[in-house]
Design brief:
The chain has helices spanning 8-24, 36-88, 93-97, and strands at 117-125, 128-134, 144-151, 158-163, 167-170, 178-187, 190-191, 198-201. It is 37% helix and 25% strand.
Length: 202
């Protein structure tokens, strides 16, 4: 059994086929409930409405384009006047507020990163170790991490690698010694607090 179409073009095509079929086969279909002339009139009404919708859509797109162009022109003119106002009053905030604008805000100085979190050893072998950690939850935007190592119990902390992600694999590490590792986040403003330490013997 056929299924009535859902798409506009298919409905219109079926209507045309039906009109032709009824008109060519009056002996078989002598009295359809809706006369073919009425169906043809409905098809014409649909076509007119469709053409009107297409025209309206095109007009709306043109109007939207004109609106955006007008808005861009307005914004460009406003920016020129605001630059003039800023220069005229040397960015005086109180005077610029008279125009609904404001002066330049003092740049916020960069803060050092916060403490690196959750350092852990994820794998290790003879003379190598894999470390992972989490980025600081606070502080300024970081630029890199310093991977630090020392020999227990009182050896000096040495920077053994710089990382830009939250993981590092270190090779050619001392063997048979107790080693401690920690991570420090850094940026141009300074260093964050060191992470927790992890102790291993490789």
């Amino acid at each position: 059994m056929a299924t009535f179409p859902k798409q506009e073009a298919q409905i219109a095509g079926l209507a045309q086929t039906m009109v032709s079929g009824f008109d060519d086969n009056i002996a078989i279909y002598p009295a359809p409930p809706v006369a073919t002339l009425d169906v043809t009139a409905l098809m014409t009404a649909y076509t007119d409405a469709k053409n009107a919708a297409v025209a309206a859509t095109a007009a709306a797109e043109a109007a939207t384009g004109s609106k955006l162009t007008a808005l861009e022109d307005l914004a460009a003119a406003m920016k020129k006047d605001l630059r003039y106002a800023e220069n005229t009053v040397d960015y005086d905030d109180d005077k610029l507020k008279l125009l609904g604008w404001s002066g330049r805000k003092d740049p916020t100085p960069l803060a050092p990163p916060g403490q690196t979190l959750s350092l852990k050893v994820v794998n290790q072998g003879e003379g190598w170790i894999g470390l992972e950690w989490k980025a600081p939850a606070d502080g300024g935007k970081l630029s890199a991490y310093k991977v630090m190592r020392r020999e227990r119990p009182e050896g000096p902390w040495l920077e053994v690698q710089t990382a830009v992600t939250t993981e590092a694999t270190l090779v050619e590490q001392p063997r048979g010694k107790e080693l401690e590792y920690r991570i420090i986040a850094i940026n141009k403003a300074g260093e964050g607090e060191p992470s927790n330490t992890e102790m291993v013997v490789l």
